Amino acid sequence: MRVVVENVEKTFVDSKKNEVLALEDINFSIEKEEFVVLVGPSGCGKSTLLNIVGGLLSPTKGQVYFESSNDKDPTLGIVFQEIALFPWRSVFENVTFGLEERGVSKKERAEKGKHYIEMVGLTGFEAAYPKQLSGGMKQRAGIARALAVEPDLLLMDEPFSALDAQTRTIMQEELLTIWNRTRLSTLYVTHNIQEAVYLADRVIVLSRHPGHIKKIIPIELPKIGRDQEKYRSQFERYSNEIWELIRHDAEEALKEA
Ligand SMILES: Nc1ncnc2c1ncn2[C@@H]1O[C@H](COP(=O)(O)OP(=O)(O)OP(=O)(O)O)[C@@H](O)[C@H]1O
């Protein structure tokens, strides 16, 4: 699946009836099997843009279109920061929820549920309920739920930002392993520069007031194993470049906070 975002603009009307231009002149694509990361300071419109790509919000101007080899409507898998698992459903029932909604047979649900639960490392926890899971395990279940519908495009909005640093590092590594197996076109939102450089094929750096694309940076490092010592200086160069692009905005955002 290839996704094209063309001339997108988004204006919100705030509680005082003032118009807020949140996004302006947004043009980019997500190529087939490409992992694109949106990075930028607080309030630059990352979530708004992800929601527009996911069809949860409509743009004020411009359009998003999907190009695939067949004509069917795209299936999207979405993972948010706070995974809203149904507390009354087990891990298995949460993971297969989307399949149930689509009328997939019980037998196929059992197979796919098992497969994706295994992929995220939750085998053995099929019958557990969300309240019995750690934060990292909840995110794993949320990822399995998004993958189980076998989406054409995976959308992830700060999926690991509520996790502690160690769990976050493990989840980033596991996400790459999963991506390597599924090769899903992915749009991932983060404000964490290291995370962006670690995961992305291309990083889209957004700026504020109004949210716009400052630069698109292809990360020319092997997809797996970027944290190895031999790539350290290149990794740091990318991180510094991105930081220089957003430093001013990040400082301004801090003053407003
Ligand atoms: N429903 C809304 N009504 C009015 N303004 C909104 C609405 N949603 C977002 N905005 C404004 O649009 C801008 C972009 O918000 P958005 O949440 O997309 O940014 P973000 O980059 O995801 O921020 P963060 O990293 O803090 O989550 C902000 O100025 C925000 O206040």
Describe the structure.
By secondary structure, the chain is an alpha/beta fold. The protein has two domains: 2-74 and 153-256, Rossmann fold (3-Layer(aba) Sandwich); 89-151. Helices cover 37% and strands 25% of the residues. The strands form two sheets. Strands 5-6-7-3-8-9 form a six-stranded mixed sheet, with helices on both faces. Helix 7 (193-199) crosses helix 8 (232-256). The radius of gyration is 19 Å and the shape is globular. The N and C termini lie far apart (38 Å). The mean pLDDT is 93. The chain binds adenosine-5'-triphosphate (ATP). Adenosine-5'-triphosphate is lined by residues 12, 14, 20, 22, 40, 42-48, 191, 211.
Distance separating the two termini: 38 Å
**How much of the residues is beta strand, in percent?**
15-25%
Specify the CATH architecture of the largest domain: 3-Layer(aba) Sandwich
The figure for the number of domains is 2
- Strand arrangement across the biggest beta sheet: 5-6-7-3-8-9
CATH domain class name of the largest domain = Alpha Beta
| Quaternary structure annotation | single chain
Please give the share of residues in helix: 25-40%
Mean pLDDT: 93
CATH superfamily of the largest domain: P-loop containing nucleotide triphosphate hydrolases
Bound heterogens, unique? adenosine-5'-triphosphate
Pfam families: ABC_tran
Organism: Mesobacillus persicus
Protein name: NitT/TauT family transport system ATP-binding protein
GO molecular function: ATP binding; ATP hydrolysis activity
